[in-house]
Amino acid sequence: MSDTVPNVTLNNGVQMPILGFGVYQIPDKETEQAVNDALSAGYRHVDTAAAYRNEEAVGRALKAGGIPRQELFVTTKLWIQKRPGEDAVKRAFKASLQRLGLEYVDLYLIHQPLGDYYSAWRAFEELHREGAIRAIGVSNFLPDRLVDLIAHNEIVPAVNQIETHPFFQRADYQKLMHERGVQIESWGPLAEGKNEIFSNPTLTKIGDAHGKSVAQVVLRWLIQRDVVVIPKSVRPERMAENMNVFDFRLSDDEMNEIAKLDTGVSVAFDHHDPAMVSWLNDRAE
Hints:
Elements: E1 7-9, E2 15-17, E3 21-22, H1 28-41, E4 45-47, H2 55-65, E5 73-78, H3 86-100, E6 105-110, H4 117-130, E7 133-139, H5 143-151, E8 159-163, H6 171-180, E9 183-187, H7 201-210, H8 214-224, E10 228-229, H9 236-243, H10 252-259, H11 274-281
Parallel strand pairs: 3-4, 4-5, 5-6, 6-7, 7-8, 8-9, 9-10
Antiparallel strand pairs: 1-2
Helix pairs in contact: 1-2, 1-9, 2-3, 3-4, 7-8
């Protein structure tokens, strides 16, 4: 792993860099260059998914980068399956491995809490025991579904990757996850640029006090909350900027000021919304 990025320790002892590089919504034709640039900037944690349609490009970049496999932390995700059952999940995982050109992944997540995800979790547990996955987890699981999954299975998810940013802070949910041994990971740490986050007066003022950008302040704030972050960019200068968040620390007062920005509302989508659930399920593979 990178010497400059601290790790969090997952519930099975696996070390995961607290800062990684996400490739969501990066077009396939741009992904290979973006990951190459991220690796050059010092990132060793890369997050992708079958649904992003860019696993092959990620794999090409990882191979071209020449970085020893043990120094990398690679996450991918299982999309909703049309056909239920453990065999379908294992086939989907094998396809992801082939696209990535890897013999194992460090973290495999159930991408959405929809469909037959209990069969998926049983398959995950078996693949984990076989050594094909170092840690298994979930994404977008709301508290009730996470607690129920834990109650009925042998392995507790190592990670839950959920929308987390200054406008949707998930502090109570993070506390629950911590009590259950689940590491919170943020997708959309910069709120996907919504709510005028980059010109927010509170974040701008704090950034000016430290000589840092709003993005750096937000990433630092999440990291100080022990939230794993995976910001995305296709611009090398922004990748370097997002990495440069370990040379300053926010005060308790600054942390509390940012905490006041919480609206408790998603800026992306609501898994309680039947229309969104239908939209997601219509895209099952």
